[in-house]
Amino acid sequence: MAALIEIEGLTKRFGAFTAVEGVGFSVARGEVVGFLGPNGAGKSTTMRMLAGFMLPSAGTARICGEDVVERPVAAKRHLGFLPEGAPSYPEMEVEDFLAFCARVRGCGREAVARAMALTQLEAVRRQPIETLSKGYKRRVGLAQALLHDPPVLVLDEPTDGLDPNQKHEVRGLIRAMAPEKAIVISTHILEEVAAVCTRAIVIARGRILADDTPAGLVRDGRSLEEVFRALTLPAEAA
Amino acid sequence: MRGLLAVARREFAAYFATPVAAVFLVIFLVLAGALTFTVGGFFARGQADLIPFFNLVPWLFLFLVPALTMRLWAEERRLGTIELLLTLPLSPWQAVLGKFLAAWAFCAVALLLTFPLVLTVNFLGSPDNGAILAGYVGCLLVAGAYLALGAALSASTRNQVIAFVLAVAACFLFAAAGSPVVSEFLSARLPALAETARALSVAERFAGFARGVIAAKDVVFFASFIGFWLFVNAAVLDHRKAD
């Protein structure tokens, strides 16, 4: 079966600075890919290009076969995207905000109710988003990405700012959805990779350094943290 | 179409979810009312028409419309919600047009709330209500022109103050281009430019509407002015979504 996410030679340059260089991988249904790297490695830039927010300088990506550069609207229909920091309109109430996203996507009220149930937002549905805690705000962003039950999920740091219980819930949710979807999550929390991912891609300075299962990365007996440091540190010292 | 309406609806509701709507409407109505009767000399003219009011509107909108447009895109950039908005299945023109229509509808509400002036003038005399309607159409077109211009400038920055100041300056340029001061200066030194400046002047184009004349060429001017700046807005957005 064809992969739901296909990325080929994705490159992004900002002036003379190359943020992402020749990144390529594909993700099939049922896979949860952990996109790992230090801050500034190019994780968010790659995800933004995949989500159609940034135009690649070179290369391309396809979501469910739709090219994100040539057919952006079609590609975005198949995608649920949680941007970094889970931005949302602060003055809007949770339910109104989700209803707005649902209207744009053409799904009904029941989709809003389902997404709120999945992310346990019912208790705060009539609260303005600006009054919510960081954990709730993150869940509002997650609910927005799940509204239309998309086959492809791209989540930029979905558990950042959550307490341990909330992290546990979100990871449970991701694991539960995994068999039906292709999921990419970016993180710099290594335990998360072992907890939810079927595959880990390590990126630093805009290039992919490793692409393996979490078990494969620690095959030689080192801890994930040691592997991560060994992969991403050398050139930073140079 | 669905996406466009969803964006317009959210944006329109956002004015009323914050104090923006209340502040804008109150200031606009107080200034429009007070200045019509004082500076405009509504009573002193002894004529039953709304020309004193219509003459004020382009100058009031000059400051108030940029206050509406400054947040349109600059705030989305600052909050990061632009990343959310532009990764929803929307084409840039749907987002641009949706926001523009919401702001335009809001200006229409502000203009509708000046109805006591129409009642007053009808109570005091027998004005040409067709001419008054033409004046209101003109006001709406001026608002649309300033909105399109301001929105395009807002798309180019993440700073609302910069968006506001740039929009006031740009609107002033297009409002004053046909004024006697500019015309005389240009005719004396650059006669070739004088005609162009007058032709591009929003205030000059509006003068006909204020007198009750809806000329096709003026409607075409406003339509192309709005269309051009909405196009610039979409292009700016597409070009520099992220930074």
Keywords:
heterodimer; A: 238 residues; alpha/beta; Rossmann fold; 4-stranded antiparallel sheet; B: 243 residues; mainly alpha; 13 helices; globular
Give the distance, in angstroms, between the N- and C-terminal Cα atoms of chain A: 43 Å
* CATH class value of the largest domain in chain A: Alpha Beta
Strand fraction of chain A: 25-35%
How many helical elements of chain B?
A: 13
Describe the structure.
The complex is a heterodimer of chains A (238) and B (243). With 238 residues, chain A is an alpha/beta fold. Chain A has two domains: 1-78 and 151-165 and 179-238, Rossmann fold (3-Layer(aba) Sandwich); 84-149, no CATH class. Chain A contains ten helices and ten strands. In chain A, the strands form two sheets. A six-stranded mixed β-sheet of chain A has the order 6-7-8-3-9-10, sandwiched between helices. In chain A, strands 2-1-4-5 form a four-stranded antiparallel β-sheet. In chain A, a hairpin with a 2-residue loop joins strand 1 (5-14) and strand 2. In chain A, helix 3 crosses helix 4. The longest helix of chain A is centred in the last third of the chain and has 14 residues, at 164-177. Chain A is globular and about 50 Å long. The termini of chain A are far apart. With 243 residues, chain B is an all-alpha fold. Chain B has one domain. Chain B is 82% helix and 0% strand. Chain B is built from 13 helices and no strands. Chain B has helices spanning 2-17, 20-37, 42-45, 51-79, 81-85, 92-112, 115-124, 129-154, 160-176, 180-189, 191-199, 202-211, 216-239.
